[in-house]
């Protein structure tokens, strides 16, 4: 049925809805708010999916593993260097104490003889 013919009817659904909207606008405002919220949620989900896809394209799984392995190797090298430095410092601290102990032992032997 064409719109002109439909509008000429006394009781049409469109007229009923217009009357209802004018008499109780809060009903339609709630519907509009719900629709807007749904649209916003859908847009947020789409944006999140797009950003995840972009991140996956920028950092493929193999590249992330290579970065992790390189970082682990660098951390291991740094730990080994720190351990070597600590061992050298401990050795340097022990040597004077060992020399002093040897001198004390030699002095004690002289007194015993």
- Number of helices, where a helix is a run of at least 4 consecutive DSSP H or I residues: 4
How many beta-strand runs? Answer: 0
- The poorly predicted ranges are none
Count of domains: 1
Protein name: Tubulin-specific chaperone, putative
GO molecular function, one term: antifreeze activity
Family: Belongs to the type-I AFP family.
Biased composition (Low complexity): 29-49
Can you tell me about this structure?
By secondary structure, the chain is mostly helical. It has one domain. The chain has four helices and no strands. α2 packs across α3. It is rod-shaped and about 130 Å long. The termini are far apart. The mean pLDDT is 76. Belongs to the type-I AFP family. Keywords: Antifreeze protein. This is Tubulin-specific chaperone, putative. GO terms for molecular function: antifreeze activity. It comes from Eimeria mitis.
In short:
The protein has 113 residues and is mainly alpha-helical.
Produce the secondary structure layout.
Layout: H1 3-8, H2 13-23, H3 25-58, H4 61-112
Helix pairs in contact: 2-3
List keywords for this structure.
single chain; 113 residues; mainly alpha; 0% strand; Tubulin-specific chaperone, putative
